[in-house]
Amino acid sequence: MVLLLRKPVPLHSDKLSTAVEHAWGVSSIGEDVDSFITQSGDKGLVYVKPHLISLLNASRPYFNVDPEEHAKALPQASQRKAWGEHQAWISLDYVRGGRDLELEYSVLARLAAEMLDENCSGLYIPRESSFIPNDSFLFRELEQMALKRN
């Protein structure tokens, strides 16, 4: 999953810790082997037993293509507007994924929902070629996805 951002922001481990704590209800990240967060520069890892998620923060448009140009190919006006506004992105990838997509999407959706803010223009799911603008429905969509298996 990819959170498209209106402006680049640093990947902060404290903000990531808060998102993980809210997503899984863990209050002491890193104090035991069941969970940890590590972050260096634009890369991060989140482990909440048994799930490992990698994060990559990029200060450029997704696909390295002018967002407004790419947005023209999207079918809905809300998608075109949201995609055209982004200038950066953060990807969330389930490490060693591909075995149980419903579970993996559920885990990623749980974290993505907690990372949403006003800087996020939308969520792109590359495997599905699906783009959802960050409107009043995105958080609920992510919550529903998260509840499927978690």
Largest sheet: 7 strands, antiparallel
- Output the structural class: alpha+beta
CA distance, first residue to last residue? 17 Å
Q: Please, what is the average pLDDT?
A: 92
Approximate shape: globular
Query: How are helices and strands ordered from N to C?
Result: EHEEEHHEHEEH
The portion of residues forming beta strands comes to 25-35%
Topology, number of strands: 7
Percent range for helical residues? Answer: 25-40%
Q: Rg to the nearest angstrom?
A: 15 Å
Given the structure, what is the number of helices? 5
Summed up:
The two termini are 17 Å apart. Helix content is 34%, strand content 27%.
Protein model, in words:
The protein is built from five helices and seven strands. With 150 residues, the protein is of the alpha+beta class. The chain has a domain at 2-9 and 52-147. It has a seven-stranded antiparallel beta sheet, sandwiched between helices.
SSE layout and pairing:
Elements: E1 2-5, H1 13-24, E2 35-40, E3 43-48, E4 51-58, H2 67-71, H3 77-85, E5 88-94, H4 101-115, E6 120-125, E7 130-133, H5 138-147
Antiparallel strand pairs: 1-5, 1-6, 2-3, 3-4, 4-5, 6-7
